[in-house]
């Protein structure tokens, strides 16, 4: 990070010079949180400790035992079953914004392979990982700890390998790390097909033409973030991921058996328990905008845990990464009774807004009329 970047981070986050030095020292190791564990840390470095006001605010939120809806996609080829699935999808997208899908057509061997490949990448020799360490958002494959490290108030307890397919629709195998190349290729291909199916179903659930969201190329821009959450010595003082909404149309998440993902439902944190063979799907900000607030993007987070590592792989369906591309609420959903909630904006403005704020600050209000 250059000097201007440090000054910008200090201004945006309101952090002191000592914190900036600590952040940079951690970043310069290129070893991530895994490196801290390997070094034998028994307590959290201060950059990971949540501020007191955030911990107090936690007391205002409750916990819910509500069961997350599970959508069974088997039988979508038949008209009656498809209608039932679409009706259920409409309800969960409006009321929950989060759900799980089963019988989605992706073999368990592909899911298990992606979890295993992600783990192997993060647990390989540190010097091999460092070859991919970067904060260049345009790099196709990069490894880093905390995308918003210099913008956030507190660092999260996780490392991430990112596969960026925003600017290229093709995956060249040689660009992927050899240790997880085959499993990642299989997973990317299967998730891309599932995403196209989900966007068709979501179009029907919105009451617009079945190919409308596909025509918007919602599934074209994809980013895969492969998270590694080491066991944490003091999990009550930090988070795996701070509360946030996703800057995409849709997120499809693969998680291992450990759990830790929670989302806000009726002002209560609700667990998203792992289901063998299941995938978590959540409505993201761009789809809330396009649906004119009909479908809801919910805040969510990942808690830290004394056991680990926890592995998860999120696929963000971001759409077309062309700066001049314009997004706005679907015209079919606008009427005198339901005027637009959001203004038109470009992809360039949207991405600039995202990369200028911590992930725990929503960008939706910036685009409201």
TrEMBL record:
Q: Name one GO biological process term.
A: coumarin biosynthetic process
Which superkingdom?
Eukaryota
Q: Where is the signal peptide?
A: none
Residue ranges of the Fe2OG dioxygenase domain? 214-319
**What keywords are assigned to this protein?**
Iron, Metal-binding, Oxidoreductase, Vitamin C
A GO MF annotation of the entry reads: metal ion binding
UniProt feature coiled coil, ranges: none
Pfam families per record: 2OG-FeII_Oxy, DIOX_N
InterPro entries, alphabetically?
Answer: DIOX_N, IPNS-like_FE2OG_OXY, IPNS-like_sf, Oxoglu/Fe-dep_dioxygenase_dom
PANTHER family from the xrefs? 1-AMINOCYCLOPROPANE-1-CARBOXYLATE OXIDASE HOMOLOG 1-LIKE (PTHR10209:SF429), OXIDOREDUCTASE, 2OG-FE II OXYGENASE FAMILY PROTEIN (PTHR10209)
By sequence similarity, the record places it as follows: Belongs to the iron/ascorbate-dependent oxidoreductase family.
Q: What is this protein called?
A: 1-aminocyclopropane-1-carboxylate oxidase homolog 1-like
What organism does the UniProt record list as the source?
Coffea arabica
Question: In the UniProt record, what gene is named as encoding this protein?
Answer: LOC113689844
